[in-house]
Structures are given as C-alpha cells and as structure tokens.
Amino acid sequence: MHASQGRSAGLGLALASAFAFGGSGVAAKPLIEAGLDPLHVVWLRVAGAALVMLPVAWRHRDLLRRKPALLLGFGLLAVAGVQAFYFASISRIPVGVALLIEYLAPALVLGWVRFVQRRPVTRAAALGVVLAVGGLACVVQVWSGLTFDLVGLLLALAAACCQVGYFVLSDQGADEDGQADPLGVIAYGLLVGALVLTVVARPWGMDWALLGGSADMDGSAVPAWLLLGWIVLIATVLAYVTGVISVRRLSPQVAGVVACLEAVIATVLAWVLLGEHLDAPQIIGGAVVLIGAFIAQSSTPKAVAAGPVTGSVTGPVAGSVAEEAPAGTDPAVASAAAEGEAGGRDQGRDPGRDTELSAGRTAP
C-alpha cells in the first residue's frame, strides 16, 4: 500500500518537474524578444535560483571539501553551459525544436560509452540513436536545406553536448561511499554557474529597466518581472527539487521516461502561448525523437536485485535537465564485479547504465 502510494506520488512529482522545465523557454523567449540579451536572462535565472538555494548550500558545505571538482564541473556544464546555449538557441529557433535537439543527449552519451570508454552498447540503444537522429532530420527539415537558422541549431546541439558532460560528471563517485547529496550538488552547481555567468554575461551592462516593463506573449502584454519569477522559482528551483524527489521515489529509468514529456510540454506551450506552429512532418519527427530517447534510456538490462536509489540530480534545460544522476549503486554492478572475481575475468559496469543518467533535465 505504502509502496504504491509512494510510486504515485513520485510519478506526480516527475510530471511536475517535466512541466516546470518545459515552461522555461516559453517564459524566457518573450524577455529575449523584449530586448534582454539571452546571456542576461540566463544569468538572472541562475543567480536568482542560487540565492534561493543558499540555505541548502550552507547545509551541505562539506561538499566543498569532499567533491570540489564535481561541483565545479557541474556548475560549468550542467548549469552555465546548458542554460546559456539553450537560451541562445531559442533566440534564433523555435523553443520546441531547440528542446528536441537537446534530447539527442542520450544518443551522444551512448556514443561516449561506445567510442570513448570503448564499451559495447545494446542493440536497442543503438536503435534509439538511429530513431532520434532520423526524427531530428524531420524536425529541422533537412530536405529543405536547413530552413532553420544554422547557428541556432548549432547552439542547441552545444546545449546537448553540455548535457553529455553533465551525465558523465554525475556518474563520478556514484559507486563510492560518502556520496554527494544531489540537493547539495544542485545548490553549489547553481552558485558556480552564477559566478561563471557573471563574468561571461557582465550583467552590470544589462538594461534593468526592461524588468519593470512588459513583454509580448503572442499579442498579450505580460509583466517582465512575472516571467522572470516563473523562470527562477518554477522552471529552475521547483523543477530541480521535484525532479530529485521523484527519482528517489521511482528510479532513474522510470523518471527518465517521464522526463521525455518535457519536450512535448515545451512544444505545446510554445504553440499555445507563443504561436510557434510546427507542420505535420516536424510533429512526426519530434515524436520519433522522443521514441528514440525512450528506447535509448530504457534499454538497460534489469538488475539482479532491487536496490535503493538514494537520489538524483535533475538537469536545465531546456531545459533540460534535462536532464539526473543516480546516487545509489546499481546492484548489477556489484553482481558483475562478484562474477569477475570468481572467474578471474575483468568485468566492467553495466554498459547501459550511463543511459539511465538522463532521468531528470537541463534545460534549460
């Protein structure tokens, strides 16, 4: 009974996280079109969220001593990199398209596993990659000679690459004792990201008066401060926290499947609120991208025994993050290690485990 209630609550939180992350681009684009630089919007988002999470950072201040490299890398890639590239991309291409491109991240993670770490991947995972790339070709309409802004597409792809770095960093130390609490990593990641973006974005040159005005959302005037409040409190703080708790109640794989809805939510919101209409081939292509991401993320063999998932770090993305890393040890890892000792053979980790790390986003 309690397990069923916990799972239902976890699914609800995962849906809330997907909705919160999916709305970030829809709220940010009117601010960008009103005259704010994309980097300034990113800085406002990350700095505001960092201020909100300061009490959490103080509570987990021991992470500065135990995991300094993890916190630095997480802040640079998972926070600053993903958010900056995603917001820059939506200033040039539709929100839904930018977020769908970010969902190439699971495929790129598999490429990292196969060609950098030189470990095999499952056939189902490879099929997911093919479907994702094929769907993306439909989204950007390659037969029309890339009708979308090429720079915008490259910026969205850069955001996906930063998500890969986030997945890889999130896996560091996941099998060790004294694991880093995901909430603490999020808090310090936001602080590091805010410091980095302060140097890059140079907010002292921002036109602060724009925040006191209004922004156009498909013909409707919306207060700029209201949009910024949504981005900071809902699309960043709430999105990350609900994503972390949902993974604790579910599992990285289940939460990752639910997180795929973020792209759908972002596309629908952009359609309704911003008037960004996609044609039939692009809608079909987007569905294929999500199916490919689903297959890539859910192709991990089942563990020998059930093990607890103590936490996970959720991503921006787009969005989107986007976009979370398991803090517990996969039982399949321990089983493989035990078999390797018995047979005198070197057994690696479950090659599909890296694909689980997308259970929660980025975005931007």
How does this model look, in words?
- There is one protein chain.
- The protein is mostly helical and 364 residues long.
- The two termini are 36 Å apart.
- It has 16 helices and six strands.
- The strands form three sheets. Strands 1-2 form a two-stranded antiparallel ribbon. A two-stranded antiparallel ribbon has the order 3-6. A two-stranded antiparallel sheet has the order 4-5.
- The chain is globular.
- Helix content is 65%, strand content 4%.
Features:
mainly alpha; two-stranded antiparallel sheet; 6 strands; 364 residues; disordered C terminus; 16 helices
How many strands, what sense, and barrel or not for the largest sheet? Answer: 2 strands, antiparallel
Helix percent reads 55-70%
Query: Mean pLDDT, rounded to whole units?
Result: 73
Q: Helices and strands, in N-to-C order? A: HHHHHHHHHHHEEHHHHEEEEH
Task: Indicate the multimeric state.
Answer: single chain
